[in-house]
């Protein structure tokens, strides 16, 4: 009788433990599904706001999730911070603060998922922005790292026209570099990074082929590069396209 009671108690405890365990499992599954839907919802809202040019609202939405471990949220937060810094209404002090914050978010996004092309792209962009506050020596010193991240982004997503455009900007900047900056580059590297306007033109056209008329600034730089190459007819063609581009963002208006 004692043995029977002990066995019954053991079975009851086992059943209770099993039910508790299964309950925890079920709650965990529901929590994961809820978290997944929540992240998807935030990303959907964020992409809508980005497409609508609602820079400040987008930043306010995403900054609430700055401690997230989700790469997709983090690189979007880096982009939103950077976009907010670019607004003419943002003070100089705030621009600096946002630039460094954006770099941290992009770095964290990259640490969470090295295979995410957008994390590489925004890390490269944000690293370049920080160089604006740290002087020409740092900016040139970071140049090779920046290009490597852009190239890695293109490897991961060959159809991303924006990253191809950024490599074109990189090439244009080094082709246009004044002599004193070339001298600084020569002290930093045994073989300083160099480029040509022809190489820049190649990437700008490549970006346009990947996604025609995707970005006002790509049209502008096609025109500017043709001017550098003394081809005024082609320069006029692309500058006219840039001028006629529908201005959705502040950057479009500046272009």
Automatic annotation (TrEMBL):
<keyword id="KW-0802">TPR repeat</keyword>
<dbReference type="Pfam" id="PF21033">
    <property type="entry name" value="RMD1-3"/>
</dbReference>
<comment type="subunit">
    <text>Interacts with microtubules.</text>
</comment>
<protein>
    <recommendedName>
        <fullName>Regulator of microtubule dynamics protein 1</fullName>
    </recommendedName>
</protein>
<keyword id="KW-0677">Repeat</keyword>
<keyword id="KW-0206">Cytoskeleton</keyword>
<comment type="similarity">
    <text>Belongs to the RMDN family.</text>
</comment>
<dbReference type="InterPro" id="IPR049039">
    <property type="entry name" value="RMD1-3_a_helical_rpt"/>
</dbReference>
<dbReference type="GO" id="GO:0005876">
    <property type="term" value="C:spindle microtubule"/>
</dbReference>
<dbReference type="GO" id="GO:0008017">
    <property type="term" value="F:microtubule binding"/>
</dbReference>
<dbReference type="GO" id="GO:0005739">
    <property type="term" value="C:mitochondrion"/>
</dbReference>
<dbReference type="InterPro" id="IPR011990">
    <property type="entry name" value="TPR-like_helical_dom_sf"/>
</dbReference>
<dbReference type="GO" id="GO:0097431">
    <property type="term" value="C:mitotic spindle pole"/>
</dbReference>
<keyword id="KW-0963">Cytoplasm</keyword>
